[in-house]
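Contributing new records

If you add data, match the layout below exactly. Sequence lines come first and carry their own label; structure lines follow with theirs. Keep one chain per record. Anything else will be rejected by the validation script.
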Amino acid sequence: MEECDNRDAVFEALANHTSDKIGSLSACSISYNKRLSLPKRLQVMRRFATDRNMSVKEYAWYFLRPYLIEDLPKSFELLIPWVKNEDPNIRRCAVEATRPRGVWCKHIPALKENPELGLTILEFVRSDPSKYVQRSVGNWLNDASKSRPNWVISTCVRWQQESPTQETNWIVKHGLRTINKQDSRFPKQRAIER
């Protein structure tokens, strides 16, 4: 089989295809390119995080995740511009890609044990105006609450004190939902809901 002389043109044609399946496969192809540095991988994957199709957006964070896990402190630093971006799809991708437990993906033991590492990016979206991002931040906290409930409670209390907005309150309520189901174990959490 002959090697394609113009890989970039082929990649662009596939990445811009109207089919979500082909777009998703294009995102997947980035994941298998071992020569890409993490900054370059993030740069290339960004376009998929903003795709019009939900499936392609989901693949963007899913295929970034294994590379982000390799060096969490560096990854969180590289994701700061993402959580500051004006596009909620990019902000959401950064949060979703680093969830401690994630959905349909391998858990991140380091974040289950030390969720405070995630504050590097979460502080920027603790009062995000986008419900799409708010849900992701709440899910991130809810993931962390399953192994570090007291940390989640104290983070939520602090966020509500420092950022008493409707958006923060929604995130806190969503992030505390598992803890609130276990109200006999954690009587304090209901006091922080507004």
